[in-house]
């Protein structure tokens, strides 16, 4: 088992699934095999296997490995190292006497890989793309008509792959937005049901509860005015029955109106389920009385916690997460801290999910802060006013 706590088989399965669909991985595998099938037979063969052959095979193998393996969220981070290693191998190929046109042809798979790992606005890799194209022209030294063909090929490769990836990225964003909207719709339905349940509880308390209280008082007055023991016993039984009914009603209203416990259970269950599913150590702690926290606050916190737990593992590679909910005066606070790899807030990219969370917190007149946790990792604090919000309604 690796030191981050994940079994190797889980990491391999995660890597396979990171391409979204297996067809994507199959296409990458096919392109890698095509590279391995085309380039080695083109190398000049001598009677013995030389260092030049070894370096050439190493260059081709590196390109095939990058095409197949280097396509997940870590690929962009290793692009600089991969380009440096590839450039060094190409230089060695030229120094060891490999034909210039053969070494120049190795540029095409690498250009395709560079384009496939670019971010939406990636100036450094775009500059690298142009520099590699210029160096390829300098090495191959084609004729003027050939140069036009090369330039056209560079442009078509860039536009074709970039266009496909940008369309796929936009499609993924739309799918994510649709998923979030559906989840928000479910949460709004739950919130509406919770609000209706609380309204019914208030109506029962204010209507039926007050009527039963008045009935008990009236029966007690009649009991005091009873003339015979039988009448008093009868009124006493009636008073007892009315008091029992009133007590049962109050118990039912209390159960229906118990807001804090249900919301706390939602978040605790979410944390426990996430920990079991991902093998990430998660702790959950509450401080102070949470009974005054409204259902809409619990709903927002639930959405916030969902997003932060997922981001801590997906982007921060966290292995431990701490969740704290506390009530301080009129402020309800949710704090989520992880031990991920984040060291600088400049590395935080607020996508659609986090932006939606911030908007929902702001709708309740709340605030959300991001900070670097002690050591490494991210600490997110969400504070929402309780009593002020109630008074403003």
UniProtKB/TrEMBL annotation:
Keywords: ATP-binding, Kinase, Membrane, Nucleotide-binding, Phosphoprotein, Transferase, Transmembrane, Transmembrane helix, Two-component regulatory system. SUPFAM superfamilies: ATPase domain of HSP90 chaperone/DNA topoisomerase II/histidine kinase (SSF55874). It catalyses: ATP + protein L-histidine = ADP + protein N-phospho-L-histidine. It is an enzyme of class 2 (transferase). Residues 303-388 form the Histidine kinase domain. It comes from the Bacteria. The chain crosses the membrane at residues 51-71, 83-103, 147-165. GO terms for molecular function: ATP binding; phosphorelay sensor kinase activity; protein dimerization activity. Its EC number is 2.7.13.3. PROSITE patterns: HIS_KIN. PANTHER family: NITRATE/NITRITE SENSOR PROTEIN NARX-RELATED, NITRATE_NITRITE SENSOR PROTEIN NARQ. This is histidine kinase.
